[in-house]
User: Fold this.
Amino acid sequence: MKKVTVLLLLILVLSCKKEPQFVKVSGPIFGTSYSIQYYDLDSKSYNKQFDSLFNVINQSMSNYIPNSDISKLNRNEDISIDDHFKTVYKASKQIYRETEGVLDPTIGRLVNAWNFGSKKNKTVLDSVTIDSLMRYVGFNRIGLVADKIKKPEQSFIDFNAIAKGYGVDVIADFLESKNIKNYLVDVGGELRAKGLNLNKQKGWTVGIENPNFDGSQSVNKIVVLSNEAMATSGTYRKFKIDDNGNKYAHIINTKTGYPTKTNILSVSVIAETCMMADGYATAFQAMGLEKANYFLSKHPELKAYIIFENEKQELESKAFNGFKTN
Assistant:
């Protein structure tokens, strides 16, 4: 009789065991949209917490918000920065040094002058104006002392090349603090994944878009992510064309002050965090294929997939450091 009772209790316990439930939350943020998918035992929706975290990041580093910390800093107001700002500053400094200034957040005034940034410029640019703005470019002149940023008065800091990826990491870290072991965070195509898509019992399947200049969307390659982050930088949506038909990327060359002329159309980078993947993807876009190839040969911890135009203006792609696609 005791054996029967124990068996019944065991069956009851097993039948009452909760299975993680799929939850999906989405909405607008950072001028784009986000999608957060995860599995949770209690099916909790953390909408308010997500909105709060996004708002904190915006208030810290958005050049599009006049009263944000970075906007105040760029107006040379005396402010103390938060830990989010410090984290992005330190990561930007690391990538700045490793790429020898290819990624430089102080290029902000040039980004705005070319109408790729938060402020609109209605005056015609000439070489004299560009040269004058280039005098204030140089992240090596920016310092962090305690919770204060030290910078020349005319310097303008813009973290747009890395802050969106950092936002992905903040949401991912929040999910992990709630003991959520399977998730995919997507903010405007910047991604971080952990564990599995339990419905499919495999990693999270995502797509790398074809670089379609007509605005249409189609998939170039499929990637399965698990316990890693991926960010993509593309020039096929924001670009300028000169009188000779040459395309120039929205990424400004930090050495010349002009939009980057490149045959690279899309760079996807896989790294441990989305912040670093985001920053390196932007840097490789600006470097060009040859320099990116050399850099990646020295950094096996970074995986990359680059789509570019060859001399015949045909699309080609190249994978680096074991970047796997399906």
Remarks:
- The chain has a mean pLDDT of 89.
- The first strand starts at residue 21 and ends at 29.
